[in-house]
């Protein structure tokens, strides 16, 4: 997969100055839901960008994260170290989990909620595991 084939994952909506046209086309409730979804997507994109920054500097190896970031941005050292620490801690925890339960006759399952564009599955896919990806969902009350 080349970087040219990577789709744009997130484009912020342009703000409109005429509020009457937006309120007639979309309800206020739907606009609020859209803002929350945009915030979640923006957080996901920022996290992927921070992970790529740490990878590019050499904190850890991840050959997949580059495909989730459109424009690489170098982050401050504290951000790079923080993302490296989190990625390493989660990876070590999962490896220990597999080591403890790998002798079991039952299959091992890991559910990662709120992981966004996390590449852990791709980095650890050599291990036997069941993968189910839940897409961004929200519940309307």
From TrEMBL:
Keywords: Methyltransferase, S-adenosyl-L-methionine, Transferase. Residues 14-31 have a biased composition (Low complexity). Pfam families: LCM. Gene3D superfamilies: Vaccinia Virus protein VP39. GO terms for molecular function: protein C-terminal leucine carboxyl O-methyltransferase activity. InterPro entries: LCMT1, Ppm1/Ppm2/Tcmp, SAM-dependent_MTases_sf. This is [phosphatase 2A protein]-leucine-carboxy methyltransferase.
């Amino acid at each position: 997969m080349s970087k040219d084939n990577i789709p744009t994952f997130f484009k912020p909506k342009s703000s409109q100055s005429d509020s009457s046209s937006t309120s007639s086309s979309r309800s206020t409730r739907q606009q609020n839901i859209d803002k929350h979804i945009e915030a979640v997507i923006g957080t996901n994109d920022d996290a992927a960008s921070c992970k790529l920054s740490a990878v590019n500097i050499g904190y850890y190896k991840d050959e997949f994260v580059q495909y989730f970031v459109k424009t690489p941005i170098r982050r401050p050292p504290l951000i790079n170290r923080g993302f490296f620490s989190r990625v390493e801690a989660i990876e070590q925890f999962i490896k220990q989990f597999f080591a403890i339960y790998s002798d079991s006759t039952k299959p091992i399952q890991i559910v990662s909620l709120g992981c966004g564009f996390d590449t852990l599955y791709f980095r650890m896919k050599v291990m036997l595991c069941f993968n189910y990806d839940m897409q961004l969902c929200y519940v309307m009350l």
